Amino acid sequence: MSSTSAAPHPAPSDTVAARGVDVVKSYGSGQTAVVALDHVDVELRRGELTAIMGPSGSGKSTLMHCLAGLDSIDLGSVAIGDVELRGLSDRRMTTLRRDRIGFVFQSFNLVPTLTALENITLPMDIANRAPDPQWLDVVIDTLRLRDRLTHRPSELSGGQQQRVAVGRALAGRPEIVFGDEPTGNLDSRSSGEVLRMLREAVDQLGQTVVIVTHDPHAASHADRVLFLADGRIVDEMREPTAESVLDRMKALES
Ligand SMILES: Nc1ncnc2c1ncn2[C@@H]1O[C@H](COP(=O)(O)OP(=O)(O)OP(=O)(O)O)[C@@H](O)[C@H]1O
User: Fold this and answer.
1) Alpha-carbon span 220 to 120, nearest angstrom
2) Index of the ligand 1 atom closest to the CA of residue 28
3) Coiled coil: which residue ranges (predicted)?
4) Which residue's alpha carbon is nearest to atom 29 within ligand 1?
5) Which CATH superfamily is domain 46-72+79-253 in?
6) What are the tens digits of pLDDT across the range 225-240?
């Protein structure tokens, strides 16, 4: 376990999937302004599963949204790969999010009238891009969805629905997949399944995955855990265990 916050020496961009430098983000103005991100430096390495943890209100979702181009920043810079997000037009930002970023949300967000397979390929269909059939096969098999492809979301368990959502995020082979509490709506068995599959997406498919979570057990699947408090990265941990993460969280919350 190490205890350095942020990254003192920037790594080359070919090893970094997303980077924030001196990121400041506040909401509101004047006396009621809230500084959600307070000069954050962060690098998310390619081929790693990173978990972002911290007390409620510490800025986890804001950090993820800013890194993913879902929210604007006040100061600093944010890049996905070598593309700097500040200054991108709305159209280029939409294209970048669609083509280079995968999203998994707590609430699955599947289209109820479409089958599992149609949900998985939906972003590519919208973008008028043909999925790479070999990659799609690998994703479907990694997520163990082969025998569920013709089912609609209502015919799938919560864990299976979230696996479809992970498949949808991976299908376009994005630069990075962001998961906002991806196991927050799942029981512990389904949660374990989804986490194992995110892990496999990293280990076997070489994907880069970042999740925000409140769950130390979920964070223990990560290569690296970043701890936020009051809008700053205050610590990080490698080779986390549920116990070591829980201990660190208790210290942050006390
Ligand atoms: N749209 C908004 N308008 C005003 N304040 C906001 C907004 N979004 C977030 N905040 C504030 O910014 C701070 C960070 O919020 P954020 O949601 O990023 O924290 P979090 O760590 O993800 O919290 P939680 O674990 O409760 O989801 C909080 O003080 C929050 O109240």
Assistant:
1) 27
2) 4
3) none
4) 57
5) P-loop containing nucleotide triphosphate hydrolases (3.40.50.300)
6) 999 999 999 999 999 9
